Amino acid sequence: MQVENKVDIFALNETFWHGLTITDAAANHILQLIKNDSTMLGLRLSIKQSGCAGFNYLLEKATNINHNDYVYEKNGAKLYVPSQAMPFLDGTEIDYQQEGLNHLFKFHNPKARHSCGCGESFGL
């Protein structure tokens, strides 16, 4: 019996995405960041290969709109996501939480199957 490897192929611009969700706390923090920096349009969320589990979230200030960005908005707070990152981030909820003395963005990603011990990276 021979088993064939099957690879699904899709086009980024022809795929239906469920999108990302921004919590009220995350939206409020993004709006505060924009208020403090007049060059900011919002935040850009992408990923990079890194960390012990495979991928890290990369969150940067967005000062321009790229032609391949998906834009998610809540209460005027905008999150820009490059189309290349959508297969890894689709369905993610972005929250902003306090943990002890730290305040940080948290990513609840249904596609992440495991994460490293420090929580900085995830794998699919």
Automatic annotation (TrEMBL):
<dbReference type="InterPro" id="IPR016092">
    <property type="entry name" value="ATAP"/>
</dbReference>
<protein>
    <submittedName>
        <fullName>Iron-sulfur cluster assembly accessory protein</fullName>
    </submittedName>
</protein>
<keyword id="KW-0408">Iron</keyword>
<dbReference type="GO" id="GO:0051537">
    <property type="term" value="F:2 iron, 2 sulfur cluster binding"/>
</dbReference>
<dbReference type="Pfam" id="PF01521">
    <property type="entry name" value="Fe-S_biosyn"/>
</dbReference>
<feature type="domain" description="Core">
    <location>
        <begin position="20"/>
        <end position="120"/>
    </location>
</feature>
<dbReference type="GO" id="GO:0005829">
    <property type="term" value="C:cytosol"/>
</dbReference>
<dbReference type="InterPro" id="IPR017870">
    <property type="entry name" value="FeS_cluster_insertion_CS"/>
</dbReference>
<dbReference type="InterPro" id="IPR035903">
    <property type="entry name" value="HesB-like_dom_sf"/>
</dbReference>
<dbReference type="GO" id="GO:0016226">
    <property type="term" value="P:iron-sulfur cluster assembly"/>
</dbReference>
<dbReference type="InterPro" id="IPR000361">
    <property type="entry name" value="ATAP_core_dom"/>
</dbReference>
<dbReference type="InterPro" id="IPR050322">
    <property type="entry name" value="Fe-S_cluster_asmbl/transfer"/>
</dbReference>
<comment type="similarity">
    <text>Belongs to the HesB/IscA family.</text>
</comment>
